[in-house]
Task: inverse folding
């Protein structure tokens, strides 16, 4: 093997490891799921320390359209973020990526206030995803 081939191989391996890190860091992690009831109500998804710490969250809605009004993110140390979302999430859609004010802390629970649009498609589910 000549020197040029060897150096190109090391260079490619180094670039490959550098580009894999941002893609891995951008992965969304499933944190929990809740079936929602009622037309205007609130529910919560318990997360816990075992899931780790997160900088961003988002909700995924399946089954029916759902109006998400507010989120209350409660952290392990008792602090919380009150986040106004006020967005209609279509069935199969996501909220925007929501930056958490208190980064690098574990999430104890996320409580969300919503209005359900009953359109005859059965149950409505909300999934919580986090990003590190």
Result:
């Amino acid at each position: 093997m000549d020197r040029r081939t060897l150096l190109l191989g090391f260079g490619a391996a180094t670039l490959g490891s550098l580009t894999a890190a941002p893609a891995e860091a951008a992965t969304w992690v499933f944190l929990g799921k809740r079936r929602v009831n009622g037309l205007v109500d609130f529910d919560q998804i318990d997360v816990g320390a075992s899931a780790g710490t997160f900088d961003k969250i988002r909700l995924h809605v399946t089954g029916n359209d759902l109006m998400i009004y507010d989120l209350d993110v409660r952290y392990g140390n008792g602090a919380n973020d009150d986040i106004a979302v006020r967005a209609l999430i279509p069935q199969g859609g996501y909220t925007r990526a929501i930056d958490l004010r208190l980064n690098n802390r574990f999430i104890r629970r996320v409580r969300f206030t919503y209005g359900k649009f009953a359109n005859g498609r059965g149950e409505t589910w909300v999934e919580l995803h986090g990003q590190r």
About this structure: Helices lie at 3-25. The chain has one domain: 28-131. Residues 46 and 80 are 14 Å apart (CA to CA).
